[in-house]
Protein 1
Amino acid sequence: MQVKKYRASTMSEALELIKKELGPDALIIESRKVKKRGITGWFSPPQVEVTAVLESKKPTTIEKQEYSYPPVNNQSESVFENAAKEIAELKGMLEEIKKEAAFSSVVDAKKQSLGVEPLATVRERLVSTGMSGEAADIILMDLIQHGVDLKSAQSIDRGIRAAIARLIRIEKPNFIKKPTLIFLVGTTGVGKTTTVAKLAAKYHLMEDYKVGLITIDTYRIAAVEQIKTYAEIINIPVEVAFNKEDYLRALKRFEDMDFIFVDTAGRSQNNLIQVGELREYLDAKKPDEVHLVISATAKLEDCESIVSAFVPLGVTHLIYSKADETLKHGSLFDIIKITDLPLSFISTGQRVPEDLKIPTVENVVGLILEG
Ligand SMILES: Nc1nc2c(ncn2[C@@H]2O[C@H](COP(=O)(O)OP(=O)(O)OP(=O)(O)O)[C@@H](O)[C@H]2O)c(=O)[nH]1
Ligand SMILES: [Mg+2]
């Protein structure tokens, strides 16, 4: 591991020096203002001293957090008890259906007698979209609760679409006040910075809002350069915040903006210390919205630990990224249920800003069922 201190008149000069000597993968571990050495230092402006290292730290792993689906509703106790009873009955029915599926001859006989697919087959079809059996059961339960005619293949199909539509939420960012402050958070490499650039382009270039960008991802030089390049192309201002004070200064500078998007460093859901570092900023000035970016390629068991790690930061929305990297999107239903968040955007590729989709209930239902 190579650790070196660099002094320069400005932060950009220091970063340039580090990049030249250690390359773009160097990590910045400390930055501070210092006076020049010797008597001349008394009369000259302060310099920036940046400490950089070349090798990345290994994240410390913690035990996997347990996660359970959020409660279905929070109505009064008696209503809840009745609902719980109904759910227990429905669960019983579903267990029967699952047992039926184990005996294909029974399934076939039932299929023939009804002239349509039995629910067990519908469940299989739902699972074949990539969603979990648990998620398929939630949809089937909703179907039964809403009295869908189970003898008609058409009404089952319509019922499934209606059930998914009822069970998901779509919500775009709200222009709450001037400026509306929005953070993007998530694990490493999920597409946070690219999505920040797409959002900035959408709101500034297409909708004529005044947009400012702040990056608090100063861990790698390449990350700072990436967002600066996007800001230059879109022609909007960007501020680099190395600490809470820089962040508050940047917010002050952007007080006339309509939207401020904050790009954050990728944090492993297994490193709660890293995730907790974000809290310092969130506590200094609470954002209006925090969008959690989850990749379509994330494993469902990882999604549960991502939720455990990031939800305590006060996330408000879900962005589904890298949707182009998989053909099946049934797991999006799981992700929406596990996070219990409204979906704000879908990212479908690397192009800025073209590959950003504004979801509607219809196209998300279609994406989940048909890919
Ligand atoms: N296929 C595909 N690639 C994407 C998408 N969004 C981003 N990428 C690519 O994924 C890589 C990582 O994207 P970034 O935006 O840098 O991801 P990040 O979350 O900011 O990464 P860190 O800051 O390192 O945590 C880049 O090569 C992007 O071009 C997407 O929707 N689809
Ligand atoms: Mg990034």
Note: Residues 3-53 form one domain.
Protein 2
Amino acid sequence: MIFLLSYTNSAATHLVSLSKFPILRIPQLSTMSTNFFKSHAFAGNPIKLRTPKPTDPFSPPSALKTLKNLLLGNTHEPHSPNFKILPFRKGRPLAGSVRGSNEPNWHLGWLSFGDCKAFLENSEVNLSEDTLVYLGSDSEGDGAYVVYWGIDVTEAGNGLVKELGSKQFCFVELRTLMVATDWENASSMGQLAIAGHARSLLEWHTVSRFCGFCGGKNILIDAGRRKQCSNELCKKKIYPRVDPVVIMLVIDKENDRALLSRQSRFVPRMWSCLAGFMEEKVWRRL
Ligand SMILES: [Zn+2]
């Protein structure tokens, strides 16, 4: 049973049955119970769970050294980690759909170093140690490791979009991927978390180009995991920003219902808990 509580041009609020609302069903979830809400999108990034030693070949300093060698045109050394690069455009990660699957499914558009270099060759974006940001590392088995990088290609223009489109890739809004993800699939949720972390980190790099203390140019340190002012008299260090936010779900346990809302800009099938900058805003909407 659905109760329309209010409606404006920008938002609507609904009371929905937790077990009987078909639109809210996530792939492979036949019912929506309170257990569903124990999953957290964009959390539990699997490639940030380990902290490598500086001497490990997949650590930020070692990976940066390997990256510099590749940029100079040197061949990939046998024991160097494999590189995978995820491009973002206007905050959207590159993604592709899974072929041969009837389910709405997707995968991130990880590119090899060579492919990324080829794609960006005729664009306005330089593939360099100043544009690639270290995201994390993971084991590939048999002692082999992969290092993940992110890059913002927003300035590359539509030519790159068309070229990647011919390879069945496109840049997709994170919330769209979230809706298309099977929340019971740990691997898919892990990919979603990696993409969320990468977007946050790249956005921080975009808005922190200059020092807030002296106006000097900030440069990447530790493969992009932090930055430092290039002014010798300042040298202010800055770290990725963490923005605390609050979101809450109003549950009517007795009647097996929850209160959700949606905005007109949301993609189809997307509903949200009541969210606000402060809890007071949520109380006002109630
Ligand atoms: Zn400074």
Note: The CA atoms of residues 88 and 152 lie 5 Å apart.
Protein 3
Amino acid sequence: MRYRVLRPPYCYRWAVLILALVTMTTLAVVALRPSAQGASAAPTPPRRPAFTPAPPPPPVEPALVRHSSEPGRVVALTFDDGPDPAHTPRILDLLSEHDAVATFCMLGSQARRYPELVTDVLARGMRLCDHTVSHDQELRTRSEQRVMAEIVGGWTDLQIAAGEDVPVPYFRAPAGNWSERLSTLAARHGMRSLAWSVDSRDWTRPGAARIVATVKDGVEPGAVILLHDAGGPREETVAALEELLPWLRAQGYQFGFP
Ligand SMILES: [Zn+2]
């Protein structure tokens, strides 16, 4: 059987047809684009309209806060380095289940990534604490400008994540590496410097049983307890809380704020 050879005129016709189709498709795509023009190249488009925070509240005392000032058998739980999409919601559920409150020392960088967790924390009656933008553990050795950017920037990130002016009554230095300069700057920005009296050492991941034992050993009326809802796997912290929350209640403790 003989094959018909496609002669030049047919080749040109096909080429013109394909070119026309490609051109029309391109034009259609370009014409449809304006609807997507608002979106930036970032993977997630901004979820909230632009928000400019009001000026910070009046200055407070720069002294370190290590205890709850509420009278009676009160314990103040604090969770650092979040918010974290895996652990913060679980911890919030556990706290709600036991009618407990806590203070969340958030990183500005995390807050901006997960703004819905910031609003959730507030909606459940918890308090916010500024834990700087990026958790620089050597912050006390940095320049004035850098320290300002980390502390005031963290405060601003929380406001922007919340999408409205929200109270941030505390500041906590990364790794508890305090200096007078850090406390003074935070105080000027209306934030008390929040230390702790009991380090659960959950950040060393010693196992849930060890975390429970450390907290049980150290707790006393007015204790401020350091825990973490982010910064690494926190299953141990969650498991420890499942035991600690009912235990603290059984010991007659109320949950309060520093
Ligand atoms: Zn931290």
Note: The chain has one domain: 64-255.
Protein 4
Amino acid sequence: MTMKLYFDPHSRAQVAKWMLDEAGVDYEIVPTLLREKAHKTPEFRKINPAGKLPALVDGRTRLFENAAICLYIAEKYPAKKLAPPVGTPARGRFLSLMVYSTAQLEPAMGDSMLRLRSNNSARGWTDFEEAKDAVERELGDGPYLFGAQFTAADVMIGSMFIYLRAFGGRSNRPRIDAYVERLQARPKGMRFG
Ligand SMILES: N[C@@H](CCC(=O)N[C@@H](CS)C(=O)NCC(=O)O)C(=O)O
């Protein structure tokens, strides 16, 4: 049975699509337009109770949240080498970066784009500048977060900065900007719209 990706081209569903495209697997797009509020219907909420895109259905498995979808695809298709294998030392850093991308980088960038200011560290994430420092440190000399190996962590972290660009922003960090250009130059790199 073909996997179904619930998708609007003007949404973060592009992140899950990028991952599926990098894995080179078959999937079907189920158009779910935000402007039609297709993501707020009772039927869609049976797949994603949060009423947000993306969501992925694979037979009897349902997934929501990009990080979960990317982890699932990397795990389902190990031959595609989109994650360090379970049991290898790099796996811990990989899992950490996957969660970091959505638990810290995404809200920090969201605050910055929306010009929300808070220096209350109790909120659970740093400000965007500190998040960029962390990404630069983890990227090192690259070209990807795991050196020469492109992984789902690049999809999750890189997509945040691609998204920033799509909204007219720049990281103002040459090393991150060069990383984003490398990611977008990939044949299946994430596109918007
Ligand atoms: N952390 C979530 C973010 C999902 C999210 O916020 N999706 C947006 C699209 S960019 C959405 O569905 N917004 C519509 C809404 O909340 O009504 C993920 O990565 O899946």
Note: Helices lie at 13-23, 42-45, 66-76, 90-113, 128-139, 152-166, 174-184.
